[in-house]
Write a structure and sequence with these properties.
With about 190 residues, this protein is α+β, with helices and mostly antiparallel strands. The chain has five helices and four strands.
């Protein structure tokens, strides 16, 4: 190594070349060992910062729409409540029978019996979300009371239809008749 330095003392051109090569080696080492890895880290940080910034802007937009989203959720909950009233599950059948009795009472009909028509339930077809339930209603009623009751059935929140009506003359009172009504309602099948 001392020999190399002693040769360079007299030769300025070799000294300049050696200094230039060493300078280039130091610059190359600095670029490869320090600058490029730091640049990659900075790029990764900027990239993740951009993603965080986008996520933050999306979150701020959601927060700004919070009231509208809460209102939408409330509207959907109200719709679900209406749909559950319109097409309840089989667990709601006793409530329906009570509602039918109340409608008849409000219409001034005297109920003799309200029961689900045994053995006449409609079978749910494959892929169907509901099942038809027939309900037999026996009552004593005049024509006007029967008309009011049928009007209430038609205006009820639930899906119901009158499948059959039979009116027979009453034996005791001339304006009261024996009425047999078959009402079809529908229930939502569990898990649908």
């Amino acid at each position: 190594m001392i020999k190399i330095f002693s040769e360079l003392k007299g030769n300025e051109q070799k000294t300049i070349i050696l200094v230039a090569v060493l300078t280039l080696a130091v610059i190359f080492g600095y670029i490869n060992l320090l600058l490029i890895p730091q640049a990659k880290k900075i790029i990764r940080v900027f990239s993740s910062a951009a993603k965080v910034r986008n996520d933050l802007m999306a979150a701020e937009a959601l927060v700004a729409r919070k009231d509208a989203l809460v209102k939408t959720i409330e509207d959907y909950n109200k719709k679900i409540g209406r749909y559950e009233k319109t097409l309840p599950t089989e667990a709601g059948l006793p409530t329906l029978l009570e509602d039918l009795a109340e409608m008849a009472k409000d219409s001034k009909m005297r109920i003799v019996g309200i029961v689900p028509a045994a053995g006449k339930e409609g079978a749910a077809r494959a892929g169907q979300a509901y099942r038809e339930i027939p309900i037999a209603i026996s009552a004593k009623s005049g024509y006007h009371e029967l008309g009011r009751f049928l009007s209430r059935l038609q205006n009820c929140d639930r899906f119901m239809k009158v499948a059959d009506i039979q009116v027979k003359g009453g034996k005791a009172a001339g304006n009261k008749h024996d009425v047999e009504i078959l009402v079809l309602t529908y229930v939502l099948l569990e898990g649908k």
